[in-house]
Structures are given as structure tokens and as C-alpha cells.
Design goal:
Elements lengths: L1 H15 L3 H15 L8 H10 L7 E4 L6 E9 L4 E8 L10 E6 L5 E7 L1 E8 L3 E9 L9 E5 L6 E2 L5 H72 L1
Antiparallel strand pairs: 1-8, 2-7, 2-9, 3-6, 3-8, 4-5, 4-7
Length: 239
């Protein structure tokens, strides 16, 4: 017991004499690890952002899924002109400056007014024509689905996805499609029912004919057996 108490005392003494500077260094190291490290490939984008977007107020941000070798189109409806159309995009999945994504802004008359292939870009456009502007991403480099971040402020309506442009028409189309499918299914069911009834009627006729023939055969065999047995008994009687 005595030696056990001495051992505990020595452990407590060593802990109290630990170097406080080492403990501070560990805390500083932990704080450094908590700080977010910026990927150097985005440094040009960050510098461009700092120069052009200091007073930029983000109206909305979207993560836009773009599969490999496919396009994703979004739309901005400009109803008031002139309009300062300001924004940026960044592809955070990029691991090098060559992992670019194609970005276009197309005017209502289908003229490309901004185009770049990059991992991130800042754009400032002065729009003078009303209408629906197309924002297009094309993923032709990264062999996977990517989600570039799009940040925009136009002071207009929020961004519209292609599927949201004609909801009423699509609902009507879906209703018409449903009705057509229902009509086709009904006709098909009636056809199957008619065919089934015809087959059942044929089967019943065959069964009835077979039953009649079977009855006739049984009656004929019974009559033959009767006369055959009668003839046999007559022969035995004469003997």
C-alpha cells in the first residue's frame, strides 16, 4: 500500500511539471487545423471576386447538377431594363485548373453574350433587352456528375429551371396522356374480354359436342354388350 501511494504521488508531480509551452503549441496547432485551407487553384477566382464583387448582394444561389457530357439549362426572365446582371459560378469539385466546365449566357435572340470555360468566373453584364435569358452549363471534362455553384443578382424574378417554364402545359399534357392511356387500356381490356368470351363459347361447344358423342358411344357399347351377352347365353342354353 505504501509503494502504491508513492507511485501515485510521482505521477501527479510529473503531470504538474509538464511544459506549459508545449500545451500552448498543441492548442495553436489545433486552431490551425480548424481553419479552412483554400485550394490554390481558386486563387484567381478569389482575386477576381475581391476586385469586382465587394458590394455584391447575392439574390440566390443554386447548386446545379450536370452529368458528364450533358447540358443543364436554367433561365432568368428579365422584365425590367436596363438590368445589371451580376453573378459568379465556381466548380468546387475541380482538383486542377484543367477541370473546367463550359458556361454560357444566351440572350432571348439566341446570341451568346457571355461565354467561358473555367473552374470559376465572375460576370457583370448590362442587359438592355427584355425576355428569357438562358444560363447553360456543359460538363465535357469531368467524368462524373458535378454541381457548380451559381450565384446571381438581377433584381428580377428568381431563376427558373427548364421544367418550370410551362407547368400548365405539362400538366395538361400529362392529363391528356393519362386519358389516352386509360382509353387504350379500356379498349385492350374489352378486346381481351371479347376474345375470352369467344374462346369460352368455343370451349363450351366443343365440350357439349364431346359429351354428346361420348353419350352416344356409351349407349352404343351398352346395346352391343346386351346383345352380345344375350347371344352368349343362348348358345350356352342350347348346349
Amino acid at each position: 500500500m505504501k509503494y502504491y501511494l508513492i507511485l501515485i504521488f510521482l505521477i501527479l508531480y510529473i503531470n504538474c511539471q509538464a511544459d506549459p509551452n508545449q500545451q500552448n503549441d498543441e492548442n495553436i496547432s489545433d486552431e490551425d487545423d480548424d481553419e479552412e485551407v483554400i485550394n490554390p487553384i481558386f486563387q484567381d477566382f478569389i482575386n477576381d471576386w475581391d476586385q469586382k464583387m465587394q458590394d455584391f448582394d447575392i439574390q440566390y444561389t443554386h447548386l446545379i447538377p450536370v452529368k458528364y457530357k450533358s447540358h443543364a439549362e436554367y433561365y432568368e426572365n428579365i422584365t425590367k431594363v436596363p438590368c445589371a446582371f451580376v453573378g459568379a459560378f465556381i466548380l468546387e469539385e475541380a482538383t486542377s485548373k484543367s477541370d473546367v466546365i463550359d458556361f454560357k449566357i444566351i440572350a432571348p435572340n439566341r446570341t451568346v453574350i457571355y461565354q467561358v470555360s473555367s473552374i470559376g468566373s465572375v460576370f457583370q453584364l448590362n442587359l438592355t433587352d427584355k425576355g428569357l435569358y438562358t444560363i447553360e452549363f456543359h460538363n465535357r471534362v469531368l467524368n462524373k456528375e458535378v454541381r457548380p455553384s451559381l450565384m446571381v443578382n438581377s433584381g428580377q424574378n428568381t431563376i427558373l429551371e427548364k421544367e418550370n417554364l410551362s407547368k400548365t402545359e405539362k400538366k395538361l399534357d400529362s392529363i391528356v396522356t393519362f386519358l389516352k392511356k386509360y382509353e387504350q387500356d379500356t379498349k385492350l381490356a374489352k378486346g381481351f374480354k371479347r376474345i375470352g368470351n369467344e374462346e369460352l363459347s368455343k370451349t363450351n361447344k366443343y365440350f357439349f359436342a364431346f359429351s354428346v358423342i361420348e353419350t352416344i358411344v356409351l349407349i352404343g357399347v351398352s346395346i352391343w354388350q346386351y346383345f352380345y351377352l344375350k347371344h352368349l347365353f343362348e348358345i350356352k342354353g342350347s348346349l
